[in-house]
Amino acid sequence: MIKGSIFNIEEFAVHDGPGIRKLVFFKGCPLHCSWCHNPEGISFKRELMVSNGSCTHCGKCEAVCENETCVACGKCISVCPLRLRRIVGDVYDVDTLATKLLKGKEVLINSGGGITFSGGEPLAQADFMIALIEKLKPLHIAIETSGHTSEQTFRKVLEKVDLVLMDIKHTDTVIHKQFTGVGNELILNNLKVLCNSEKPFYIRIPLMPGVNDTVENIEKTAQLLVGAKNLLGVDLLPYHKTAPAKYAMVKKEYNPGFDVNQEVAIRTEIFEKYNIKANKL
Amino acid sequence: MTNRIKKMLDDVLQKKHHQYRQQISENEFTDFTEMLKTKGFSDIQRAKERLTWVLTNEKPVILPLETIVFTKTVTIHPEIFTKDEWTDIKKSHYVHELGRVSNINANYEYTIAHGFEFRKKEVLEAKEKYAAEGKTKEIEFLDAVYQSIVDVEKIVARYAQEAKELGRMDIYNTLQRIPAQGATSFHEALQFFRILHFTLWAAGNYHNTVGRFDQYMFKYLDNDLKNGVLTEESAFELLEEFFLSFNKDSDLYVGMQQGDNGQSMVLGGVDKDGNSAFNKLSEMCMKASLELKLIDPKINLRVDKNTPMELYEFGTELTKQGLGFPQYSNDDVVIPGLVSKGYSLEDARTYVVAACWEYIIPHKGMDIDNITAISMTKLVNDCVDKYLTTSTDFEEFMSHVRHEMAIKLIEITSALGNLYTEPSPFQSMLMDNCVENGKDISLGNKYNNYGIHGTGISTSVDSLAAIKKYIFETKEVTPLQLIDGLKTNFEFDESLWLKLKYDAPKMGNDDDFVDDIAVELMDMFADLSKDLRNERGGVFRPGPGSAMYYIWHANEIGASPDGRKKGEPLSANFSPSLNTKVNGPISIIRSFSKPNMQKIVNGGPLTLELHDTIFRNSESISKVASLVKSFMDMGGQQLQINAVNREKLLEAKKHPENHKNLIVRVWGWSGYFVELDEVYQDHIISRIELEV
To answer: Within a domain: residue B517?
Structure first.
């Protein structure tokens, strides 16, 4: 039986598609964007996550630990008096997850909402996701994706979902690689597939100051979207400084590679010039 | 908002009118009370004398921009009994709270429509009738009512005189017509209301609710709009001025906490035939509240399955302002629930809420809906002590819970015998049938039911779930281990505490394992209350509200089997336990609509705390509105939503001077955060740790 790895489920997402939505975070992503807000969603493996903020250093976690480096065995979790530790990466089979997501589905349906798959990168677990969608239909399904996957997978998923929210992080493949670890070739190819499909979609641009908020990049991004008849709009998501909080929790360092104090340019007017609706989220 | 209202709002916020408040020495109060005793006045006469004293001492104040006058200058009211006399009374009587009539809803509309001259005639007619029968008690009561009306006329005359001297002939002319005659315009009706409401407070009554204002005031508004006396704009301005008047003196009306003043207004709902009663005035009230952003009047919205989404969206706009209201009550649950408790369908359809959320019947109800409370958490704890070691399964344990609950309910309800409440001749004048029957409202009216708060519902349900799971199913914990753990506040058994606190199933996660226990416990509460009667022949209404008991009852017990340590508060009202990590609002509304809410119809809302960023655009407003509607569709009874931001509250606690206008929902009312006692501030902060 095919399994999926999920690192969070939000019950009341209001900014990720129409209506009230359950938001499912798939664990694991082929990109590792320097600014990622969900560093615990990057690795495909189970991980230990620790909130250190209120730790009293009582030492109980260390006392039960039998390993040199963390293997995410979870032994330290139940001894922490403040429950500051948890394992991220719950492994589900399709039926269990579907049952969980369908609970309270009338709330989703009444609001014109549904379920949104996010991550990480949901397309990195495409077979699991497709099997899951079969169980969730006729609920409205949306995906939030980087678009970094094979065209074949992309098309297969596209057929199954009702709405796509796809990121375009940079139009220049070299800069794309510098900040996300991969070039943008697959992404731009899939964008073409999306633009030519019958599927309604939004484009989302996480705006990083000095990285992709330049006139040149925004102009090029807008040009890629000209004529896309099912494009519902472009959402601009300006960088905000809460991202670093989680890095220490998964023992990673936060090096965004740009000046975080610089103001983000929000160039909705460029999209408007091309008759594309753009909103700051 | 017009410039005049802006200026008046500013003045209210700056408390400029406080300069007119009088300093009356303590001695004058005690002298007055002693005088009442020395003269050998009856309690009815004393109540009448107090109102006379207060109104005589009041000084007319007409603030420069206002057209609806009456501002309190006497800030404290004398007692009608000395301390010793109270002690004596309490020896043989049950006395609820301050021993005064409170928390009911007056029939303002009848007197506003007919005027004092007409009401006086009614009183005299009744007096004649009882005189013919030689009934002295009734005559004494009616004399007191008559004198109260005369006292109000006197202060009105002094206000008119003051207006004349200030050259405010508009006010002078208004006061020449009302309250002597019935109101003929929206403005007169509002001024009339203000006089009546002011007098209720002056008479020592408290939690003086506003009721279905949009219903009883609509005809005046409608007439004025049709006849061109008012335009939509001028009517709205008048309404805003009227709303402001509730905030002038409300700090003097402290309930359990500053802000708990009971000035609840109920909008919408159905008419006597069951059709939607939401009208233009209801809408204007919501708009005024939205613009003014003040804690009074407290807006309550009655909804049902036919309530349009737009109304929920409008309500959510109000929630977004961080006012903690509207509070929603579900007619589809409340009305049949009240009928099952013996209210007539026609009366049930007129229900309003008392100071917080308890359902009361306007004009006719003398229910005391918060007269007593049962601590569900203590009940479960006691059963653990007595029966856990001998119970062979959970079912048997629950049968003991039932038995103990039955005993406890009889114990607390039979402690309420020989109730004594100070007479209230003026309030009686504003209640149906009192004048006609020659009987003071303190002695009862058409409905004389009592309410029982079931407190700490989630804490007790979570406790029972932990017992079911760990003692009887997995048997990971032995009864003695749990009993020891509770006795020692888990000090020597941290792993037990962690298991109970973090690993045990909790209510609010849409988990049938726990929620079924809630259903059973609530059914039990309803069944065992069903046959109880009070000395006035009224029934007892069980409800899932806690009021301030979530702090009080928590202090009466030690640790509980849900992992709650000694001293930690209980869940407030019908909401998840504190510090419980729940899945989210969909799970919460599902869990809290599973019990049969029609049976526990004393009121008690689910409080949902949503982070204020959720409300940032119009799309998310309609999503929150849809969530509210879903809760009602599922059969939920009552809901209040807080738009909160934990950081903001922490900052406000640190620097109260910068956050004077920060409003929060406390247990059934909205108040200024910085004016609350710390224990309530902290409860709110920890409540929202589970915010979404």
So the answer is: yes
Residues A210 and A140 reside in one and the same domain: yes
| DSSP letter string, B147-203 | HHHHHHHHHHHHHHHHHHHTT-HHHHHHHHHTTTS---SHHHHHHHHHHHHHHHHHT
The complex's ipTM?
A: 0.92
Partner residue facing A12 (CB), from B498, B499, B692: B692
Domain presence at residue B521: yes
Interface size between A and B, measured as CB pairs under 8 A = 70
Number of domains in chain B: 2
Beta carbons of A5 and A91 less than 8 angstroms apart: yes
pLDDT tens-digit profile of B456-511? 999 999 999 999 999 999 999 999 999 999 999 999 999 999 999 999 999 999 99
Burial degree of A204 (CB within 10 A; 0-12, 13-18, 19+): buried
Within a domain: residue B94? Answer: yes
- For the record, the structure tokens of B421 come out as 């409440």
Q: Report pLDDT digits (tens) over B611-637.
A: 888 887 788 899 999 999 999 999 999
Domain limits at B78? 1-98+113-187
For chain A, the first-to-last Cα distance in angstroms comes to 39
Rounded Cα–Cα distance for residues B384 and B561 (Å): 9
B157 within some domain: yes
For A123, the domain range is 3-46+89-280
* Domain total of chain A: 2
H runs (alpha helix) in B368-493: 376-387, 394-414, 425-429, 434-437, 457-466, 479-487
A129 and A222 within one domain: yes
Contacts of A15 (CB under 8 A, 6+ apart): A281, B620
* Contact criterion met (CB < 8 Å) for B630 and A110: yes
Report the distance separating Cα A264 and Cα B633, nearest Å: 44
Integer Cα distance of B215 and B133 in angstroms: 39
Note whether A122 and A169 are same-domain residues: yes
| Residues on chain A touching B587 (C-beta within 8 angstroms) | 11, 103-104
Contact B638/B603 with Cβ under 8 angstroms? yes
Cβ–Cβ below 8 Å for B494 and A81? yes
Q: Are residues A74 and A150 in the same domain?
A: no
Of A184, A200, A189, residue with least CA distance to A154: A189
Whether A20 sits inside 8 A of B510 (CB atoms) is no
